[in-house]
Amino acid sequence: QVQLVESGGGLVQPGGSLRLSCAASGSIFSILVMDWYRQAPGKQREQVATVRTDGSTAPADSVKGRFTIARDNAKNIVFLQMNSLKPEDTAVYYCHVVARATQSDAPRNYWGQGTQVTVSS
After folding, report:
1. Residue 35 pLDDT > 90
2. How many whole angstroms separate alpha carbon 100 and alpha carbon 32?
């Protein structure tokens, strides 16, 4: 099993910044993909940004130029640096990974518990 622990959410004014972190622990053979998703009240969960094992990233159009995703492969941590935050970025942010617990396991999806980000003056 893989456990994900997120941190870094909170309340910030428009134009401000926050940095989210997500640490993966437990039985981990390999992590293939690390993502951040978010879900605003009354809306579907949406993908915010993805970082692959080789470091390549794919941010959503809505956050390009404002959010940066990065990972520390040695420590199994993924970060989301959020700058120029807008009220519409308010949501619960979830860490997600696709990982193998052992060499023989198929890749599985794992989710964090979510951390609230509120952008308001």
Report:
1. yes
2. 8
